[in-house]
Amino acid sequence: MADTVHTPSANTGYEIYRTSSAPSLDETAHMEVTGMNPEFEAGITKALEAGFAEGNIVKTLFSRPGFSLTYAWFKSGFPLPLHTHNADCLYYIVAGSLQLGTDTLGPGDGFFLPADKAYRYTPGPNGVEVLEFRTQENFDINFLAKSLPAWEKIAAAVTARKPDWTNETAPPSAVLA
Length: 177
Prior knowledge:
Blueprint: E1 7-8, E2 15-16, H1 25-28, E3 31-33, H2 38-50, E4 56-64, E5 67-74, E6 83-84, E7 89-100, E8 103-105, E9 110-113, E10 122-134, E11 139-143, H3 148-165
Helix pairs in contact: 2-3
């Protein structure tokens, strides 16, 4: 699958990646969902039926053993659930804004999270574009919301935000041609 993410060049010694042809994170299978149980599966299904997947675009831009670069665009108010990853991650905000705890971060800002640190953030009124630099090519996501009521709350938030998302278009930097 790595061949579809970047183009090695024997002549130049560098590799090029293009957002326009980058596969979704789901297509590359670089991120595995862990901690599934029947209640969690039922809950995430409800969130997906409400339009959870319509609130974000996540692409694998580049990956190699020991390194990956992911692009993510989350629409305004996207209810990113509390979760962890098993790899360190450095986030860089390209455009928009997000609320992380009591801090509002915007373009040029970023944050670092060590592996297994629980976090969530809320995209601002114009959504947020982030680059995610990880210390692993393959990593997991462990949603801490495991109960059906927790996911029903997320589904309700998606339902409330979805009318606004219909008018939000991908930023030019997403190059989703």
